[in-house]
Every structure is written in C-alpha cells, then in structure tokens.
C-alpha cells in the first residue's frame, strides 16, 4: 500500500542566538532525523516525554513549521518546503487538533464562525450552504447544532475539544494530526473524546497521527506507535509488539513506569524499571545513542555510535545496540538485512504489512555483507573489547552514510 | 558580569554619539530645507549681516556635517575655540558648545541647572515611592473595601490631572491664598530650610502624579503575586503572614516597580519641563524649554545629550539591579 | 463528646453529624466538612459534607475530576482558606477536622499556623510555580525548618542538605544554593518533598504531586514517596485524578464527585467491588496500559455539575446511566447517604446493594 505520508530524515533545529550581533551559538535539535510512514486509514501513535520533539514533529508534518532538513511527502508530493500558496490545497487534506481547548478557539468568535472558517479560507461553498454544513458537523461531533451562535466560553472543556474536532473535519481531511487532544480533559470526558475520534475514523475513513504522552491512551487508539526520545524515533512498531514485547530499553522503561490502576500489583517492584535522572537537553544531546546516559544496558559502543533504526522483527523497528528480547533475532544478520534493504532500495522501505523475513536476505547481497565484515575485522583490535566487536560499530555507520547524503541532497536542492 | 557592564557602557557611548550626530544633522538640514539661514537663527533675526557671518564662521556652519560632528566631539575632551569675525571665544575642556544667544559656556549653564533638577526629582522620587507603594500594598490587602476604593479613586485623579493643573492649583492654594512656602529655589549649600521650602511644593505636585501611577501598579502587581503558588507554599510552611507578605510577596512585587522607577528617574532628570516651568525652577527642563523656544542649537544639543545619557544609564542600572533581584535573569 | 466544641466560620445550617467514635481516636478525622465560597454568581459549594478518617502510616487517595472539591479539601485541612483571603468574601467553613486529638477549625488560627509545616505539610502539583523564584532552594527549605525550630542557620542548613540528600538530589551541598529554575522538574519535586518533610510532619498532603511530571520521573517520585512514608511513618493524603497513581500508593480510596464523597473504602474493594455508578464510570473511561483492549471505552455521559447548582438529590443523577433503576420509592430529590456496603467500604447510592453488585459483576466488570 502506498503511504499517505512519508517522512525521511526529518529535521528541525531551532537556532539559539546570542549577543549583540545575534550570532547563532547553537541549536535546539527538536527533531533530528525521523523516518516513518503513515498508511491510509491507520492511527500512528507518537509517544515520548516532554522535550522529545513529538509536538514539533506534528507541526512539521502539518507544515505549520518548515523543516530544516529531510523530506515530507504527502501522497507522493514533496511538501517539505512549499510556501503558503503551495500549501493551500494541502491544508484541506491535512488538519490539526490541538491540546488546549481553551487557547485554540478565538473567544470572540461564535462556534458557527469558528467551524465555518475553513470554508471561507479555502473558498469552498459546501453543498446546502455553510450554515447547514456547520450544523451537520456540530451534530457529527456530538454537539447541539442549535448552539451555532454560542461562544466558546459557554462550553465545557470536552465540548470545546469537540468544536476543535468539528473545525478540523470541516474540509473532509485525509490526515488528522492530533497533538495531545485529550490530555487537558478529565478522565470521563477524555473517554468521550477518544470514542468520538474512534467513531469518526470509522465513519469517515480518517488517518490519524495521534501525539500524546499518555501511554495508556496511545495503546488504546493506535495501530502502530512510534516512541520518541530527544528528537529521534527509538522504536516504531505495531501496538501488540510494542506493548507486549518492547525491544528498546527506553520503551520498556517508559511502559513499566506507568502506574497500573490495579492495587493488587502495587509494590511489585521487579516489574518497574526506574530510570535515573531526567531527559537531557536537546541543545546538547548525548553522543552516540541519546539514551545511553540513562540506560542500564549502555556500553562503550552506545556512547560513540548512534544506532540506526532497523527492522529487527517484522514490523518492529528499533534503534538500539542492545535490544531487549532479541532471542530468535540474530542481530548481526538482521543488521545486514536492513542494510541491504536500504542500499538496494532507499526510496521504498517495506511497509509493515509486507515485512521482510529477517533471516532471508543473506544470500541476496553477499558483497555488502562481506564488505561490512572485512572492515569489522580490521577495526576489531582497536576497539579492545572483542565481545563487543560482533555487534560492531560498523553496521550503524554504514546505514548512516546512506541516509545522511540523502538529507544533504535535499537541503542543497532547494 | 564585569564584561557585561563594560559592553553596556560601550554601547551607551555609541548611542550618545549617534544622538549627537542625529541632532546636529537635524539642525543642519532643517534650515537647508526651509531655506532659512542657520546662522541667523542662532543670533536672532535682528542681527546685522556682519555678526551673522561671524557666527557662521565661529560655528563652522559651512563645514560638512561630519566635520562639525568632529569639532563637537573633540571639544568635549580638549576644549574648543570659536574663531570668526575677528575675535575668538575659547570654550574650556568639557566643552559642550557655546551659546551665542546667552553668550555663555553651555557646560556652565548645565552645571548650574543640574543640581536644581536633581534636587527636585530625587526629593519627589523618595516621596512618591514611599507613598505610592504603601498605598498600593494597603489597597491590595484591603481589596474591595472602602479604603481600597478611596485610594484608587484618588490615584485615578492623580494620574488623569495634568501636572500644570495640579501645580497651578497648589500654588494658588498655598502660595497665594495661605502665603506659605513662598521662597523660590535656594541651593542646599546656602540654606537647607530655603532649599526644602522652595522645593516642597514641586515635590508634592510631581509626587502626586507618580505616586498615583505607582499605587496602581503596586496594587495590581501585589494582587497578582498574592495569587501565586509560591505564596500558598509559604503559608503552607507555617510562615506568619507578616513574613509571607513582607518577605515573599514584597520581593516579587518590588521587581517591576524598581524597573519603572529607574526609567522614570532617568526620564525626569532629562526633562521635568512642565514642573520646572510651572514652579519657575531654573533646572534642566527650563533650560531645555528656553533652548527650544530660542532655537539655541548648542544648548539644545547639550540638553538632548544629557537626557539621552540619563535614560540610557538609568536603564543600565535597572538591568543590573534586576539581575541582582531575580536570579533567573542572566547577564551575558 | 462533641457539644463542647465551638466552631469558626459561618455555620451553614445542618446539624453536625455526631460521630460513631469519640473524636480524636483516629489520627485524622474529618467530619461533615463543608467549604462554601460566596461569589457574585451564587454560593459555590466546593465541599459539601465530607467525612473521612485516616490512621498514621496509612495513605488515603482522594480521587476526582476537576471541580470535585478534592484540592479545596486539602487546602481546607491545612487551614489555608482562612489565611490571606484579603478583602475577599470569606470562605464559609463548617464541620470538624480532628488532627491528633485537636480540632483545627475551632482552634486559634495562630495555633493552626504553628502546626502548618510542622505537624502537617503539603506538596503541590507544579513545583516550579510552588517555589519562590528569587530564593535558593536550600534557603527555602531552611526557612521552613527555622520557622518551627529555634536553631541557627548552620544547623538548619545541615538539616536541609541532609534532606536533599535523602530525597535523592545528587551533590546536595552544592545544589543547596541553586535556584528553582536551575533544577529539572523531577529535582524540583524532590526538593519540594524535602521541604515538606524537613520538620517530620505526621500528616503529609500531596496534591497531584506527579501530574506535572513526565512518566519516568513520576515513577521515581512515586517510588520515593512510598519509601519515605515507610521511613517517616506519616499519614499521607494523596489527591489525584489518576487512578493508576492511587492504586500505586493508597491503602484507602475516597472518590469525590460534586463536592461530596460518593464512595470510600479499602483500595482493593473500591477497585474490585466498586459500588457506585460514578466509580464504574471512572474505571470504564480509563484506557489500560496493561491489557490489549479492543472494546470501546465506556465514558460517563455529560459534563461535571456546576458547584453552584448541584442537583438537590444525588449529584451524579443527571449523568447516571442507572438513574431509572427502581429504587423503592426514593425520589430524585433525596440525597443518598453513605452506607456501609462492605468491610470499611461505604457508598452513597440509592440503588439496592444487590442490584449494584449484579450490575458491576454482570454488566461492567466483563467489559473492562
């Protein structure tokens, strides 16, 4: 299946300027190289702690922000650097729902004019007139169509979020990016909105990118989930694999940290992995694997080599040198397999629906495998840790060199 | 921190140079555009052509603007000779120009006027700070009561009434009707009582306006601060209300007030024109007023510079103070 | 013996329910607490007749949505509705709050002030705004210690550093001089806990202590709180909207709705045999991380009640899916009282208990 949205090497660095001359002294690497696809009709959940870049990612793919690197393709069209007028047709297809149901609605406008604004902006005259269509939308999201002339402050938080949803749906978008759509709401209201989003997806065939910090909500709504840490995706997998057998240590720690609403499990200490410290600053992210400062499995290689995001199990992509539950997956061969995939066809990574058998590709590309092995042997004595040499630093480098020039080409091309 | 201060001082100097250049340019260009003779402006319309020509030579008005600029700046450091029409006027080392209107060294004029303004502004500042902040705090703590309303109505009056009105009114009542405080300005070096008596009315009048503004600001800030979470924390710790208010709340409340205070002081030193004129105080404001109405370029230039310097330096002091008060502000 | 008590605050009518046990037997005993705020729109009944008990060494979790009155309750116990309410219309508080054998509402405010921070301390939701930005973290802890202990600065500093160390702040002596903005969110909450514990309080109230934190940091803080409670043996009231957090920490759970308690009891009973439709609603609304759910969530319909016009009968009635279940002649305007439904387990619902048990076991539990 063709992806609806395809993101390669996506980057957003916010410059930090200082001094009289406003020289750039650094950058907040909010999003630093993301690759993922969103397929029609699915919900891609994006989770991570504050500062992981998930909201920036949402603003990039809706092009409320312009990326500093990488490529965003929507239905095969590169939209990474489209201007305001170039984006106009796209604004119909991609809509966003925001977290704050208080701040995102203009208090001086009636609900009717808020929900009908997209029609005016796009110059669309819906069938049967704007008012009728708006009332239909209000009904669709479970609001009383009679409340057309009321103002946002007359509604409760949950109802305001419904207004935001109605506005997002006005132009019948294909992709809806929801940034923390329920985190400002009370539990009982949160469930109403989650159910509403579910129903609308079914009814209208929507595709969602659902950004949230609440892992329970994400588990409930998502088909596939990307876990972000400091501007990177550390794991991307279907719901079942991710929640039942997470492979990245960060994913595992994140899952185990969520308090389970079951008093009988309280104090069962073995289940919980307590991470040390806080998330480091995205201005100066740790070298190598960004998680190594908090990871209990970190070794030397993690400090120096950035692990690439590789498909270690069907439909489960992980960026880790020492993945969890890796039995049954021979990592070196898995690495090569993905390397092969990338070198052979960098433009079309496999869709999760058609996963590549993990062991298979070895005979397919002996040359590449050999090349990797020979450099590995050459480097092995230097590393001083023979045990580590098998999970060599070379594999990640190889993959890196493929993706990096691609990103540069893009930047040069504009 | 030191590097920051040095950099800021450097930018103060740069800014003052720019102000000089701009002021000079304005007076250089305007006569050109209106077709009048700048030299004639400087001596007055009835002057004979010979003396106008002499002034032109003395001021170097025929020179390009940058040369004039250079003469002015170097004059500050090494003094300057005005030569033309057969005679030479020497203006000694901090030479900020020579006023041909009054036939006086500008620097002398300024040093005469400055203490007057400073006395007036500082005295009023002490008064309004104490009065304004106290009223504001009391008003905030008694929010919604009669006391609060009375204070805020008075403050509103203070803010809305123009200073010349209150000045005239106070003079009418105290000087004309009651016959008090009739003495005019006396330097503090001559007589403290005379100085105090002469300045009391200007102080009160000026302070009324500013105290009103400060009371409103203090009240609003205090109310905001009292709603802060850390005030609740302070109470939850078991601190007595006197500490909660006097220490925790006051420190936060004073921060914006100090900022405004610094700016106001700077601005007033350069130009309490209305107050000085209304009370006939021979201060900088009056000098500025006279300079402008008589188109005395050297004096205008000097007053402009002093005003600019006062504002910029006050700003610097405020920024430094701010960094001391609020640890979140980093100076770099 | 309760008749010798004098009460502060305007009485709101309604006689005080005389307790079953003598007041002061339990460590914290809140009886028929009412906290009402007069506003221009009407009387806001934030807390309207709340009673509960808590023993030392135990944790009570108060659960509810925004506007349920849970935070107002916590500030009420601390006596923070009566100080610093300058010029405003005063909160009307009635009922009794017994802490360690002393009644707080009728006590001299100065006495209560001296108890705050020493016998009862509080942790707030957002540690950044809850600390004064202009004072160093260490000095704020020292201040909390010295107001209740007549010691010199050096001793107090030693104590503060000791506590910073205990709550897991690395290099506590160095971090002592840091300002709150120089701490990370998790560190700030640790410092906040250190500040609350500096006087070894017997009662610790934590109002949404982890809501502002990331989930991995939340886990650290919950872990710390559990350890500290074991060590300090204090009674803890934790206020939260997160059922996961209460399940993690609480021995007893109190569910609040519209300013009243709808259900309270041991954590296990409330989670496994809930007896109130609102509790069912909370459990059904909550997506679970620990199981694969394909079913839709079961939300509570409608919106939380306005506290100005709380329905005269059961506050939950307008949202209750079982409002039409026959209740043996009880009308909608009658207010359900808390009744015993299990061991130490109370619930306020007009439905017959057998019916509730049936609905829970047959209709609700299988869907969760």
TrEMBL record, chain B:
One of its GO terms (molecular function) is dipeptide transmembrane transporter activity. It is a multi-pass membrane protein. Residues 114-318 form the ABC transmembrane type-1 domain. CDD domains: TM_PBP2 (cd06261). Pfam families: BPD_transp_1 (PF00528), BPD_transp_1_N (PF19300). One of its GO terms (cellular component) is plasma membrane. The chain crosses the membrane at residues 9-30, 116-141, 153-174, 194-213, 257-279, 299-325. InterPro entries: BPD_transp_1_N, MetI-like, MetI-like_sf. The keyword Transport applies. PANTHER family: DIPEPTIDE TRANSPORT SYSTEM PERMEASE PROTEIN DPPB-RELATED. This is Peptide/nickel transport system permease protein. The lineage of its organism: Bacteria, Bacillati, Actinomycetota, Actinomycetes, Kitasatosporales.
From TrEMBL, chain C:
It holds the Pfam family oligo_HPY. CDD domains: ABC_NikE_OppD_transporters. Keywords: ATP-binding, Cell membrane, Membrane, Nucleotide-binding, Transport. SUPFAM superfamilies: P-loop containing nucleoside triphosphate hydrolases. The keyword ATP-binding applies. One of its GO terms (biological process) is peptide transport. It is found in: Cell membrane. Residues 30-283 form the ABC transporter domain. GO terms for cellular component: plasma membrane. Its main location: membrane. Belongs to the ABC transporter superfamily. Residues 1-23 are annotated as: Disordered. One of its GO terms (molecular function) is ATP binding. PANTHER family: DIPEPTIDE TRANSPORT ATP-BINDING PROTEIN DPPD, OLIGOPEPTIDE TRANSPORT ATP-BINDING PROTEIN APPD. It is a peripheral membrane protein. This is Peptide/nickel transport system ATP-binding protein. Transmembrane segments: none annotated. InterPro entries: AAA+_ATPase, ABC_Ni/Peptide_Import, ABC_transporter-like_ATP-bd, ABC_transporter-like_CS, Oligopep_ABC_C, P-loop_NTPase.
